[in-house]
Amino acid sequence: MSAAGESRRPRRAGRIVGGALAGLLVVVVLIGVVFLAWAHTLFMGERPAALDAWRDDAVEIRSIGPGPADGFMITPSEPSGDGLVFLPGARVDPAAYLWKLSGVAEASGLTIVVPKLALNLAFFDTRPIEAYTAYAPEVSNWYAGGHSLGGVRACQLAGADGAAEAGVVGVILFGSYCANDLSDSGLTALTLAGEFDGLSTPEDIEASAGNLPDDAVTVLLEGVNHASFGDYGPQPGDGTATVDSDTARDEIATAVADALAD
Asked: Among 10, 83, 109, 121, which is most exposed with the fewest C-beta within 10 angstroms?
């Protein structure tokens, strides 16, 4: 083989490798763009329900964070002194929970912080529990909670080093479950399961019950599906609710208040 042929082969191989790397980079960028578009396509809160919450004289709602869309804090007119950090489900607008959580605040006395999460996904938000509890320094005892994927992340926050020092005393899960082991944590644990939840089914919740302390309480809410824990419309893969939003709100608020009163 001539010297010229030998020199062309490395150049050709280099061009092939370079082209492959460029193609791979394009694919990675496209995947990133698609993911970001997906993460920012929210299940938006329904305006009538949110307005009802803002008009509820039993609670005060205010925006938190450096911007008006960074989340909300709900303070009941008769606060118990305890608080709940409530993490939204995947790609769900925090405002979608205002109507249901205002009922919880009124019935239980909990001060509730509902943050907007990084990329609208709980697992991408790496802030510690203190980042949320700082909005209500007057509260000493805190529950970590959330809906769906937000509840899974809340369990991780409750089990993290320093959670007890931050005042975390329990977890409150809406259509969710713990993926990490809190069975020996000594935390109070309440799980609300929707009868017709097609995404976090009662069977899924039961299968993960071993990750919670033995005295954990699970309440099955009749007629409730996954989306009933908020007000953001139907969700793919969910079951069909047989109760309206107001009835679901009453069921949720009563279950939380009764559990915390025991």
From this structure: 10
